[in-house]
Design a protein that fits this description.
Radius of gyration: 23 Å
Number of helices: 3
Number of strands: 0
Number of domains: 1
Order of helices and strands: HHH
């Protein structure tokens, strides 16, 4: 974990590097239950940055899921309309 602490110390540098470090920290937090925020830094500001980035990524995931569900819902409605039209034309 010392290497991760070293990386997190440099959160103020290049924005691409910051995103990579935050992604890595969030990955570790998500998939390794023995990892905690304090493993990355003792500084409240760094922990707050990690938490904020984690929350941001969760909302991105939620919005993506909602978009997919809307697409599925719209597709089902279109298919339902087509089925109703086919039923009407077969009755005539």
């Amino acid at each position: 974990m010392n290497k991760v602490r070293y990386l997190v110390k440099h959160l103020g540098s290049n924005s691409e590097t910051v995103e990579t470090i935050l992604d890595f920290a969030i990955f570790l937090l998500r998939y390794y239950e023995n990892v905690d925020y304090e493993d990355f830094s003792d500084l409240v500001t760094i922990i707050a940055k990690i938490k904020r980035a984690e929350l941001h990524r969760v909302w991105i995931d939620i919005e993506e899921i909602i978009g997919r569900l809307d697409g599925i819902d719209n597709s089902s409605k279109q298919n339902l309309v087509i089925i109703k039209i086919k039923k009407r034309t077969t009755r005539d």
